[in-house]
Amino acid sequence: MTAPLSFDVHRPRALTEALDLLDEYGATARVIAGGTDLLPKLRNGRLSPEHLVSLGRVGELDGIEETGDGALVIGAATRLFDVQRHPLVRKRLPALHHACSVMATVQIRNMGTVAGNLANGSPCADTSAPLLVYGATLEVARRDGHREIPVGAFHKGPGSVDLASGELIVAIRVPPVPAGSGSAYQRISARSRVDMAAAGVAGLVTLDGDGRVAEARIGLSAVSPTPTRCPEAESLLTGQVPDAPLLERAAREAAEEAKPIDDVRATAAYRRHVVFVMANRVLTTCVARASAGAGGGTP
Ligand SMILES: Cc1cc2nc3c(=O)[nH]c(=O)nc-3n(C[C@H](O)[C@H](O)[C@H](O)COP(=O)(O)OP(=O)(O)OC[C@H]3O[C@@H](n4cnc5c(N)ncnc54)[C@H](O)[C@@H]3O)c2cc1C
User: Fold this and answer.
1) Counting atoms of ligand 1 from 1, which one is nearest the CA of 39?
2) What are phi and psi of 65, to 5 degrees?
3) CATH label of the domain that carries residue 221
4) 18: CA distance to ligand 1 center in Å?
5) How much is the pLDDT for 191?
6) Where residue 238 falls among pLDDT bands split at 50, 70, 90?
Protein backbone atom coordinates (compact mmCIF):
# COMPACT_ATOMS: atom_id res chain seq x y z
CA MET A 1 0.00 0.00 0.00
CA THR A 2 1.34 3.47 -0.84
CA ALA A 3 1.92 5.87 2.07
CA PRO A 4 -0.49 8.80 2.19
CA LEU A 5 0.86 12.08 0.82
CA SER A 6 1.97 14.49 3.53
CA PHE A 7 2.66 18.20 3.03
CA ASP A 8 1.40 21.55 4.24
CA VAL A 9 -0.51 23.69 1.74
CA HIS A 10 -0.09 27.46 2.03
CA ARG A 11 -2.54 29.79 0.29
CA PRO A 12 -1.05 33.29 0.28
CA ARG A 13 -3.19 36.20 -0.91
CA ALA A 14 -0.31 38.46 -1.98
CA LEU A 15 2.87 37.98 -3.99
CA THR A 16 5.04 39.24 -1.10
CA GLU A 17 3.49 36.63 1.16
CA ALA A 18 4.17 33.88 -1.39
CA LEU A 19 7.81 34.99 -1.71
CA ASP A 20 8.22 35.07 2.09
CA LEU A 21 6.92 31.49 2.30
CA LEU A 22 9.25 30.31 -0.48
CA ASP A 23 12.17 32.05 1.24
CA GLU A 24 11.32 30.52 4.62
CA TYR A 25 10.86 26.93 3.39
CA GLY A 26 13.57 26.98 0.69
CA ALA A 27 14.16 23.67 -1.07
CA THR A 28 11.43 21.92 0.95
CA ALA A 29 8.76 24.03 -0.80
CA ARG A 30 7.22 23.88 -4.31
CA VAL A 31 5.02 26.39 -6.06
CA ILE A 32 1.70 24.97 -7.21
CA ALA A 33 -0.38 26.75 -9.87
CA GLY A 34 -2.93 24.50 -11.64
CA GLY A 35 -1.29 21.35 -10.27
CA THR A 36 -1.80 19.45 -13.55
CA ASP A 37 1.89 18.53 -13.81
CA LEU A 38 2.75 18.66 -10.11
CA LEU A 39 -0.01 16.52 -8.62
CA PRO A 40 0.77 13.43 -10.76
CA LYS A 41 4.43 13.75 -9.68
CA LEU A 42 3.41 13.91 -6.00
CA ARG A 43 1.17 10.88 -6.42
CA ASN A 44 3.83 8.75 -8.11
CA GLY A 45 6.52 9.81 -5.63
CA ARG A 46 8.77 11.62 -8.10
CA LEU A 47 8.55 14.72 -5.88
CA SER A 48 7.92 14.91 -2.14
CA PRO A 49 7.94 18.53 -0.97
CA GLU A 50 7.00 19.36 2.62
CA HIS A 51 5.28 22.61 1.64
CA LEU A 52 3.15 23.64 -1.33
CA VAL A 53 2.77 27.36 -1.96
CA SER A 54 -0.40 27.83 -4.01
CA LEU A 55 -0.78 30.76 -6.40
CA GLY A 56 -4.54 30.24 -6.66
CA ARG A 57 -5.47 33.17 -4.42
CA VAL A 58 -2.75 35.61 -5.47
CA GLY A 59 -5.01 37.85 -7.53
CA GLU A 60 -2.19 40.11 -8.72
CA LEU A 61 -0.70 37.16 -10.68
CA ASP A 62 -3.92 36.45 -12.56
CA GLY A 63 -4.65 38.20 -15.85
CA ILE A 64 -3.15 39.63 -19.04
CA GLU A 65 -2.17 43.28 -19.36
CA GLU A 66 -0.91 45.39 -22.24
CA THR A 67 1.94 47.74 -21.36
CA GLY A 68 2.49 51.21 -22.86
CA ASP A 69 4.93 49.81 -25.46
CA GLY A 70 2.43 47.21 -26.70
CA ALA A 71 3.90 44.20 -24.87
CA LEU A 72 1.49 41.64 -23.41
CA VAL A 73 2.24 40.54 -19.85
CA ILE A 74 0.69 37.21 -18.87
CA GLY A 75 0.44 36.76 -15.10
CA ALA A 76 1.78 33.46 -13.78
CA ALA A 77 -1.58 32.34 -12.39
CA THR A 78 -3.49 32.99 -15.65
CA ARG A 79 -5.16 29.79 -16.85
CA LEU A 80 -4.38 28.42 -20.32
CA PHE A 81 -8.08 28.83 -21.16
CA ASP A 82 -7.96 32.55 -20.32
CA VAL A 83 -4.84 32.99 -22.47
CA GLN A 84 -6.52 31.16 -25.35
CA ARG A 85 -9.65 33.33 -25.28
CA HIS A 86 -7.99 36.72 -24.69
CA PRO A 87 -8.77 38.98 -27.70
CA LEU A 88 -5.23 40.45 -27.94
CA VAL A 89 -3.65 36.98 -27.79
CA ARG A 90 -5.97 35.78 -30.56
CA LYS A 91 -5.19 38.82 -32.70
CA ARG A 92 -1.47 39.36 -32.14
CA LEU A 93 -0.12 35.99 -30.99
CA PRO A 94 -1.89 33.38 -33.13
CA ALA A 95 0.85 30.79 -32.50
CA LEU A 96 0.38 31.01 -28.71
CA HIS A 97 -3.40 31.16 -29.13
CA HIS A 98 -3.31 27.95 -31.18
CA ALA A 99 -1.01 26.15 -28.69
CA CYS A 100 -3.32 27.05 -25.79
CA SER A 101 -6.36 25.93 -27.83
CA VAL A 102 -5.20 22.45 -28.83
CA MET A 103 -2.99 21.21 -25.99
CA ALA A 104 -4.29 18.75 -23.38
CA THR A 105 -8.03 18.75 -22.62
CA VAL A 106 -10.63 21.38 -21.74
CA GLN A 107 -10.38 20.35 -18.06
CA ILE A 108 -6.58 20.66 -18.03
CA ARG A 109 -6.67 24.00 -19.87
CA ASN A 110 -9.10 25.27 -17.24
CA MET A 111 -6.58 24.46 -14.49
CA GLY A 112 -3.11 24.72 -16.02
CA THR A 113 -1.02 27.85 -16.62
CA VAL A 114 1.60 28.94 -19.15
CA ALA A 115 4.09 29.54 -16.31
CA GLY A 116 3.54 26.00 -15.03
CA ASN A 117 3.93 24.62 -18.56
CA LEU A 118 7.38 26.27 -18.80
CA ALA A 119 8.52 25.71 -15.19
CA ASN A 120 7.79 22.01 -15.46
CA GLY A 121 10.80 21.87 -17.79
CA SER A 122 9.44 19.44 -20.37
CA PRO A 123 11.03 19.76 -23.84
CA CYS A 124 7.49 18.98 -25.17
CA ALA A 125 5.78 21.97 -23.51
CA ASP A 126 3.37 23.29 -26.12
CA THR A 127 3.67 26.97 -25.19
CA SER A 128 7.48 26.94 -25.39
CA ALA A 129 7.98 27.11 -29.18
CA PRO A 130 5.48 29.96 -29.70
CA LEU A 131 7.02 31.94 -26.82
CA LEU A 132 10.50 31.32 -28.28
CA VAL A 133 9.58 32.84 -31.63
CA TYR A 134 7.82 35.78 -29.97
CA GLY A 135 11.03 36.53 -28.02
CA ALA A 136 9.23 36.30 -24.66
CA THR A 137 10.98 36.78 -21.33
CA LEU A 138 10.13 35.46 -17.89
CA GLU A 139 9.92 37.82 -14.95
CA VAL A 140 11.25 35.88 -11.95
CA ALA A 141 11.03 37.14 -8.37
CA ARG A 142 12.48 36.14 -5.01
CA ARG A 143 12.02 37.85 -1.64
CA ASP A 144 14.89 40.28 -2.15
CA GLY A 145 14.88 41.00 -5.86
CA HIS A 146 13.89 39.97 -9.34
CA ARG A 147 15.44 39.17 -12.73
CA GLU A 148 14.38 38.57 -16.33
CA ILE A 149 15.21 35.45 -18.32
CA PRO A 150 14.62 35.01 -22.06
CA VAL A 151 12.47 31.92 -22.65
CA GLY A 152 15.27 30.61 -24.86
CA ALA A 153 17.68 30.51 -21.89
CA PHE A 154 15.22 29.14 -19.32
CA HIS A 155 15.29 25.42 -20.15
CA LYS A 156 18.55 23.73 -19.14
CA GLY A 157 17.68 20.14 -20.10
CA PRO A 158 14.77 17.72 -19.74
CA GLY A 159 13.03 18.60 -16.45
CA SER A 160 15.59 21.28 -15.61
CA VAL A 161 15.02 25.04 -15.67
CA ASP A 162 16.80 28.19 -14.50
CA LEU A 163 14.90 28.67 -11.22
CA ALA A 164 16.53 28.63 -7.79
CA SER A 165 14.73 27.72 -4.57
CA GLY A 166 12.91 30.77 -3.25
CA GLU A 167 12.15 32.01 -6.80
CA LEU A 168 8.92 32.03 -8.73
CA ILE A 169 7.80 33.17 -12.17
CA VAL A 170 5.67 36.27 -11.74
CA ALA A 171 4.78 36.82 -15.40
CA ILE A 172 5.63 36.10 -19.03
CA ARG A 173 6.32 39.24 -21.06
CA VAL A 174 5.73 39.03 -24.81
CA PRO A 175 7.19 42.06 -26.64
CA PRO A 176 5.27 43.75 -29.45
CA VAL A 177 5.30 41.72 -32.66
CA PRO A 178 6.91 43.72 -35.51
CA ALA A 179 4.49 45.15 -38.09
CA GLY A 180 4.35 43.05 -41.27
CA SER A 181 4.66 39.76 -39.37
CA GLY A 182 2.79 36.48 -39.54
CA SER A 183 3.09 33.69 -36.98
CA ALA A 184 1.74 30.16 -36.56
CA TYR A 185 2.14 26.92 -34.56
CA GLN A 186 1.53 23.26 -35.33
CA ARG A 187 1.98 20.20 -33.12
CA ILE A 188 1.42 16.52 -33.53
CA SER A 189 0.93 13.78 -30.99
CA ALA A 190 1.52 10.41 -32.51
CA ARG A 191 -0.53 8.28 -30.11
CA SER A 192 -3.77 10.13 -29.46
CA ARG A 193 -4.93 13.72 -29.44
CA VAL A 194 -4.73 13.96 -25.65
CA ASP A 195 -1.04 13.38 -25.28
CA MET A 196 2.12 15.41 -25.03
CA ALA A 197 3.31 16.47 -28.49
CA ALA A 198 5.73 14.24 -30.39
CA ALA A 199 6.86 17.40 -32.19
CA GLY A 200 5.89 21.07 -32.25
CA VAL A 201 6.90 23.83 -34.68
CA ALA A 202 6.28 27.57 -34.32
CA GLY A 203 7.22 30.25 -36.82
CA LEU A 204 7.27 34.01 -37.16
CA VAL A 205 8.07 35.70 -40.48
CA THR A 206 8.36 39.47 -40.92
CA LEU A 207 8.17 40.85 -44.47
CA ASP A 208 9.68 44.14 -45.61
CA GLY A 209 7.99 46.60 -47.99
CA ASP A 210 9.27 44.64 -51.04
CA GLY A 211 7.81 41.35 -49.84
CA ARG A 212 11.22 39.94 -48.82
CA VAL A 213 11.85 38.30 -45.47
CA ALA A 214 13.17 40.91 -43.05
CA GLU A 215 13.34 38.36 -40.23
CA ALA A 216 12.39 34.71 -39.72
CA ARG A 217 12.18 32.77 -36.49
CA ILE A 218 11.52 29.06 -36.17
CA GLY A 219 11.04 27.36 -32.80
CA LEU A 220 10.90 23.59 -32.18
CA SER A 221 9.64 21.62 -29.18
CA ALA A 222 9.77 17.90 -28.33
CA VAL A 223 12.59 17.24 -30.80
CA SER A 224 15.66 18.24 -28.77
CA PRO A 225 16.61 18.24 -25.05
CA THR A 226 15.25 21.79 -24.72
CA PRO A 227 12.93 23.88 -26.90
CA THR A 228 15.18 25.40 -29.54
CA ARG A 229 15.46 27.87 -32.46
CA CYS A 230 16.75 26.92 -35.94
CA PRO A 231 19.40 29.54 -36.86
CA GLU A 232 20.47 27.91 -40.15
CA ALA A 233 16.94 27.63 -41.48
CA GLU A 234 16.16 31.17 -40.33
CA SER A 235 19.20 32.62 -42.13
CA LEU A 236 18.27 30.78 -45.36
CA LEU A 237 15.07 32.85 -45.40
CA THR A 238 16.42 36.24 -44.41
CA GLY A 239 16.54 38.78 -47.27
CA GLN A 240 14.87 36.38 -49.73
CA VAL A 241 11.54 36.30 -51.52
CA PRO A 242 9.63 33.58 -49.61
CA ASP A 243 8.40 31.43 -52.51
CA ALA A 244 7.32 27.81 -52.08
CA PRO A 245 10.72 26.19 -53.01
CA LEU A 246 12.55 28.42 -50.52
CA LEU A 247 10.08 27.65 -47.71
CA GLU A 248 10.51 23.93 -48.43
CA ARG A 249 14.32 24.26 -48.28
CA ALA A 250 14.09 26.12 -44.98
CA ALA A 251 11.74 23.47 -43.59
CA ARG A 252 14.23 20.73 -44.58
CA GLU A 253 17.00 22.67 -42.86
CA ALA A 254 14.87 23.03 -39.70
CA ALA A 255 14.35 19.25 -39.69
CA GLU A 256 18.15 18.81 -39.98
CA GLU A 257 18.66 21.14 -37.01
CA ALA A 258 16.30 19.09 -34.79
CA LYS A 259 17.92 16.56 -32.44
CA PRO A 260 15.08 14.08 -31.97
CA ILE A 261 15.25 10.84 -30.01
CA ASP A 262 13.31 7.57 -30.08
CA ASP A 263 10.94 7.28 -27.12
CA VAL A 264 7.46 6.04 -26.23
CA ARG A 265 5.85 8.87 -28.18
CA ALA A 266 7.60 8.47 -31.55
CA THR A 267 10.78 7.45 -33.31
CA ALA A 268 13.50 9.97 -34.10
CA ALA A 269 12.97 9.37 -37.85
CA TYR A 270 9.22 10.06 -37.60
CA ARG A 271 9.87 13.21 -35.59
CA ARG A 272 12.38 14.55 -38.10
CA HIS A 273 9.96 13.92 -40.95
CA VAL A 274 7.03 15.66 -39.24
CA VAL A 275 9.23 18.63 -38.34
CA PHE A 276 9.85 19.06 -42.08
CA VAL A 277 6.13 18.72 -42.93
CA MET A 278 4.94 21.03 -40.13
CA ALA A 279 7.71 23.61 -40.66
CA ASN A 280 6.75 23.84 -44.34
CA ARG A 281 3.09 24.39 -43.42
CA VAL A 282 3.87 26.78 -40.58
CA LEU A 283 6.17 28.94 -42.75
CA THR A 284 3.60 28.99 -45.56
CA THR A 285 0.94 30.14 -43.09
CA CYS A 286 3.28 32.77 -41.62
CA VAL A 287 3.98 34.27 -45.05
CA ALA A 288 0.28 34.23 -45.99
CA ARG A 289 -0.66 35.93 -42.72
CA ALA A 290 2.12 38.50 -43.04
CA SER A 291 1.07 39.28 -46.64
CA ALA A 292 -2.58 39.64 -45.60
CA GLY A 293 -1.73 41.79 -42.60
CA ALA A 294 -3.41 39.18 -40.40
CA GLY A 295 -0.46 37.63 -38.70
CA GLY A 296 -0.26 39.26 -35.34
CA GLY A 297 1.82 42.38 -35.91
CA THR A 298 1.15 44.94 -33.18
CA PRO A 299 -0.75 47.89 -34.69
C1 LIG B 1 -4.01 14.67 -19.12
C2 LIG B 1 -2.93 15.69 -19.33
C3 LIG B 1 -2.66 16.14 -20.60
C4 LIG B 1 -1.66 17.11 -20.80
N5 LIG B 1 -1.42 17.51 -22.08
C6 LIG B 1 -0.47 18.45 -22.31
C7 LIG B 1 -0.20 18.87 -23.65
O8 LIG B 1 -0.85 18.44 -24.62
N9 LIG B 1 0.79 19.79 -23.83
C10 LIG B 1 1.52 20.28 -22.79
O11 LIG B 1 2.42 21.10 -23.02
N12 LIG B 1 1.29 19.89 -21.51
C13 LIG B 1 0.32 18.99 -21.24
N14 LIG B 1 0.08 18.57 -19.96
C15 LIG B 1 0.92 19.09 -18.88
C16 LIG B 1 0.31 20.25 -18.05
O17 LIG B 1 -1.08 20.26 -18.07
C18 LIG B 1 0.84 21.62 -18.52
O19 LIG B 1 2.24 21.61 -18.51
C20 LIG B 1 0.30 22.80 -17.68
O21 LIG B 1 0.46 23.99 -18.40
C22 LIG B 1 1.03 22.93 -16.33
O23 LIG B 1 0.55 24.08 -15.65
P24 LIG B 1 0.11 24.02 -14.12
O25 LIG B 1 -0.30 25.40 -13.76
O26 LIG B 1 -0.89 22.95 -13.89
O27 LIG B 1 1.47 23.64 -13.41
P28 LIG B 1 1.77 22.93 -11.95
O29 LIG B 1 1.39 21.50 -12.09
O30 LIG B 1 1.03 23.72 -10.91
O31 LIG B 1 3.28 23.17 -11.86
C32 LIG B 1 4.20 22.53 -12.75
C33 LIG B 1 5.63 22.82 -12.28
O34 LIG B 1 5.89 24.20 -12.42
C35 LIG B 1 6.19 24.80 -11.15
N36 LIG B 1 5.52 26.10 -11.18
C37 LIG B 1 4.21 26.35 -11.50
N38 LIG B 1 4.01 27.68 -11.53
C39 LIG B 1 5.17 28.27 -11.20
C40 LIG B 1 5.59 29.64 -11.05
N41 LIG B 1 4.76 30.67 -11.27
N42 LIG B 1 6.87 29.88 -10.71
C43 LIG B 1 7.75 28.86 -10.50
N44 LIG B 1 7.42 27.55 -10.63
C45 LIG B 1 6.14 27.27 -10.98
C46 LIG B 1 5.66 23.84 -10.11
O47 LIG B 1 6.39 23.92 -8.89
C48 LIG B 1 5.88 22.50 -10.81
O49 LIG B 1 7.22 22.11 -10.69
C50 LIG B 1 -0.91 17.62 -19.71
C51 LIG B 1 -1.20 17.16 -18.41
C52 LIG B 1 -2.17 16.21 -18.21
C53 LIG B 1 -2.46 15.73 -16.81
Assistant:
1) 29
2) -125, 150
3) 3.30.390.50
4) 19
5) 67
6) very high
Residue 252 is part of which domain span?
A: 181-291
Q: What's the pTM value of the predicted model, to 2 decimals?
A: 0.96
Give the 3-state secondary structure percentages of the chain, helix then strand then coil, rounded to 5. 35, 25, 40
Based on the fold, state whether residues 167 and 206 are members of the same structural domain.
no
Angle at which helix 268-292 crosses helix 244-257, to 10 degrees, equals 140
For residue 236, the Cα-to-chain-centroid distance in whole angstroms is 25
pLDDT in tens, 99-152: 999 999 999 999 999 999 999 999 999 999 999 999 999 999 999 999 999 999
80 plus 16 within the same structural domain = no
CA dist., res. 213 & res. 210, Å (int)? 9
pLDDT of residue 293: 80
Nearest to 49 by CA among 20, 15, 10: 10
pLDDT of residue 2: 61
Q: Which atom of ligand 1 is nearest to the CA of 124?
A: 11
CB of residue 38 inside a 6 A radius of ligand 1: yes
As a whole number, mean pLDDT of residues 52-81 equals 97
Q: Which of 19, 36, 98, 106 to mutate to test the pocket of ligand 1 (most atoms within 8 A of CB)?
A: 36
